Model the fold of this input.
Amino acid sequence: MEVLYSSTRDGSMQVKASEAILKGLPDDGGLFVPDRIPALGKSLTELSGMGYREVAYEVMRLYLTDFTEEELKNCIANAYDSKFDTKEIAPLVHADGVHFLELFHGATIAFKDMALSILPHLMTAAARKNNVKKEIVILTATSGDTGKAALAGFAGVKGTKIIVFYPKDGVSPVQERQMVTQKGENTYVVGIHGNFDDAQTGVKNIFADKGLEKRMDGQGYQFSSANSINIGRLVPQIVYYVYAYTRLLREGKIAEGDKINVVVPTGNFGNILAAFYAKNMGVPIHRLICASNENKVLYDFFRTGIYDKNREFVLTSSPSMDILISSNLERLVYRIAGNDPEKNVCFMKALAGEGRYEITESMKGQLEDFYGGYASEKETADTIRSVWKEAGYVLDTHTAVADCVYRKYLEETKDGLPAVIVSTASPFKFARSVMAAIDEKYDAMTDFELVDELSGLAKITVPSAVEEIREARVIHDNICEKDEMQKMVEKFLGLA
Ligand SMILES: *Cc1c(COP(=O)(O)O)cnc(C)c1O
Done:
C-alpha cells in the first residue's frame, strides 16, 4: 500500500516519497510526515536471519513506496558497502551490562553516516524518477557531524552541489578539520559567527525565500536538504532499531516479543524519532529514553509539557547535541495533536514568536513512551572515566551522556529490561574531551597526540577518517556572519 507524505502544517497537500526527498521541506515551513506508520512486513525472527542490507530493504520499502525494488536495492548496495569498516554495519557491543549499538563505523565515524551514505543515492534516484533536470543544491546546517557526513556523501555526485554551514566556534577540532579539508569541486563549507540554531534558522530562511527560488530556477538550480528534517534521512535511521532488536534475538539475549529499552543521545530529535517510528512499526520497545546534555530543553519538555528555548545556549563537550530548537520534535507534536496541522501551527507559531509553547494535558498523556533525562558536563566526564575503568570500553562524549542518563533512569525506575544504548560517535572524533575525562595529564597534548594516545589506551587502531586529516590541506576557509549566509550561497552559485 502506498505511503504518501503531507506537511505538519498543511493537510491539503500530499506528495510521494521521492518528491518529499527531493524537496526536503514543504513550502509552508513544516516537515513532511508519512500519512501512516506501516507495520513490519515480516516477523522479527524472520528478519533476524538477514544481514543489514536486507533488513534495510525490508524496512525502507514500506516507506519509500514509489521506488522500485531495483532502485531501492541499488541505493542500499551503494550505501552500505566497504565505506563501513565492519561487515555488520551497525554492530551491537555488549559492555558494562548494556548493549551499545555502534553507529560510527562509516566514513566519517558518526551516526550521521547511517543515513547520509544512502541519501545521495535516494536523491539522485528520485531526481531521475521525477524527470528533474535541474542541479540540486544541498543546503545543510550542521552541529558538526552532519556536515562532514553530507560532504562525504555528496562529494563528486553528478547533478548536485553541497553547501555546509557550521558554527565556527561550536565544533570539535577533529570535526572542523574533517570539513575544511573536504575535496570535491561541488563542495562548499562556511563557518558562521553564531551557534547551530543560527545556522539552522539561516538555512530555513534561505529555503523560504521565494525570490531566491525564482532566480535559482532561472539558473537551473533547486534546493534540497540533507538535514534530519528530510524524510530521506529519517527512514534509513529506522532500520538500525529493527536491526538491533533482531541481533539481540539472534544472539539469544531475548525472545521474540520481549521488550527492550532504547537510550538515544539527542539533539535535533531525529534519531530518537526514528526509534519511535520503529516502535510503532512493531518493534517491542518499552521506553524511549531521550538523553540531553546541559542544553536540556527536551528534558524539561518531557517533564513539564513546556518547550522553552529562552535560555542560555551552552557549549558542551557533546557539541552535536548543542541545540535549543529540536526541529524533528515538530513531527511528534503534530502526531500527539491528533495529526492536526492547525493545532501544530499554533505551537510552532508560538515557538517562532515567543520561543515557547505548552502542549495540552491530553497531549502530555501521549508521551508515556518517552523518558527525558540529562547529564551535566561533570557527569558526562565521570561516566567516560568509570566505564573505561570498569569495562575497558571508551565512550565518546555523546554516548556518555546517554549512558549516564540510562543509569539515572535505572536508579529512578528500577526498570531493568535489556537496554540498547545508541552509540553515535567514535571517541576518536572527540579525543580531547574523552582523554581529558580519563586523566588530566592529557591536557597539554596536541589533538593528534591525543588520538594516538587514545588508540593505545583503547587498543583500537586510529580510524582512517582521522588518519586522512592528519596531513590534509585546508581547502575551505570561508567565514561569515549569521545574516550573510544567503549572500554566501548566491556567491557560490554565481547569482550575486
Ligand atoms: C547528530 C548527533 C546527535 C544527535 O542526533 P539527533 O538526531 O540530532 O537528535 C548525537 N550524537 C552525535 C555524535 C551526533 O552527531
The pocket of pyridoxal-5'-phosphate is lined by residues 110-112, 145, 228, 265-271, 320-321, 398, 424-425 (CB under 6 Å).
